[in-house]
Design a protein that fits this description.
It contains 13 helices and no strands. It is globular. The chain is an all-alpha fold and 363 residues long. The chain folds into 2 domains: 1-154, no CATH class; 165-363, no CATH class. Belongs to the CcmF/CycK/Ccl1/NrfE/CcsA family. Keywords: Cytochrome c-type biogenesis, Membrane, Transmembrane, Transmembrane helix.
């Protein structure tokens, strides 16, 4: 076992312990909260150290490691060696885990009755992501004496300055959708159907803005490479990434309406769950290899299809299951119809985004 694999194991075990401790804390065991926070910080430190270790291997051209040999070469510019971290599927799982864990550190500092329960739900995907790194991380090595003298390097299309910034921005936006999901789950568990708006709304605004920025960057990059009409190809992976943004934008409009009128509670819970489930679905499409012949954004199959599908189904079951259990208990005042108030316009805006989401998914 090398250092990177050891760090992956530490991150996974810390995530597992933190999840159990946050669960105990949400059930009323105050003594579990301090160990939960400590374990969560240990998880972050292990993930940050794993990322730093991978970067060290990439920059030192240590071709004993399969990942380094696949996504870097001695002739590559340093900025593209930097981007090698997210150039391959194993590295993106590690980056996804670190970004999600970093966002959790921010949430953990928020003093709100829903925070502890929300941290349990935010930690769920971290258990799965760190387990992926344990199972198929970027620290696998070639047999002794059988490693290449030089690596393959990044795909030439990816050796562009936008590669150094576009993927991390998108990952930050997609990862941040776990926050509204986790807070919504905590609100359903605690039956706090309006109190979740205050802690969730800044996250929804943040994720909407960051994802929009990422899409603009991607469009500029594609236009630069492909010319007129190339900024958006409507391929399955592009659409799969666009749909969660539409759902999240609809949630943003709905929360603003609910904050004033008290309506759209059920719709907003549904959208908070759906936005993150759609992120996982898009990730499954991208990483399972099923779209390798249809999308230039698709990764090759790592043999994790069953695991990724289980991850998707688990989070969908948790989210929609909690919503169904509480559905009759959630007050449902009618939507603000019949006037041209700001709230009614926001409601119409939500409908437009939901319709666009459905049309993009079907088309």
């Amino acid at each position: 076992m090398n250092l990177g694999q050891l760090l992956d194991w530490v991150a996974f075990l810390a995530a597992l312990f933190a999840g159990l401790a946050f669960l105990a804390g949400s059930l009323g065991r105050e003594s579990a909260l301090k160990p939960a926070r400590v374990a969560y910080r240990v998880q972050w430190l292990a993930l940050a150290a794993a990322v730093a270790t991978l970067w060290r291997l990439l920059f030192s051209h240590n071709f004993r490691y399969e990942y380094v040999a696949t996504y870097t070469s001695r002739s590559m510019e340093l900025r593209y060696v930097l981007a090698g971290l997210w150039g391959g599927q194993e590295g993106t799982f590690l980056l996804w885990a670190l970004v999600t864990c970093s966002l959790g550190l921010v949430m953990m500092r928020v003093k709100h009755p829903l925070t502890t329960t929300a941290m349990f739900f935010l930690n769920l995907p971290l258990v799965m992501l760190t387990l992926v790194s344990v199972m198929r991380g970027p620290f696998l090595t070639f047999p002794a004496g059988r490693f290449p003298a030089d690596g393959q390097g990044l795909n030439p299309l990816l050796q562009d300055p936008w590669m150094t910034i576009h993927p991390p921005v998108l990952f930050t936006g997609f990862s941040s959708l776990i926050a509204p999901f986790a807070i919504a789950m905590a609100a359903l568990v605690r039956r706090d159907y309006d109190g979740w708006i205050k802690p969730a709304l800044p996250w929804v605004v943040f994720s909407t803005a960051v994802l929009a920025t990422g899409f603009i960057m991607g469009g500029v990059w594609a236009y630069k490479v492909l010319g007129w009409g190339g900024y958006w190809g409507w391929d399955p992976v592009e659409n799969g990434s666009f749909i969660p943004w539409l759902s999240n934008a609809a949630l943003l409009h709905g929360l603003l309406v609910q904050r004033v009128t008290g309506s759209l509670r059920r719709t907003n819970f549904f959208l908070a769950v759906t936005s993150y489930v759609l992120v996982l679905y898009a990730s499954f499409l991208t990483r399972s290899g099923v779209l390798a012949d249809f999308s230039v954004h698709s990764f090759v199959n790592l043999g994790l299809n069953g695991f990724l599908l289980s991850f998707l189904l688990l989070m969908a079951l948790v989210g929609y299951g909690a919503l169904i259990l509480r559905l009759r208990d959630i007050p449902g005042p009618p939507a603000p119809l019949g006037n041209f108030s700001r709230e009614s316009m926001m409601w119409l805006g939500q409908l437009v985004f939901m319709l666009m989401c459905a049309l993009t998914a079907v088309g």
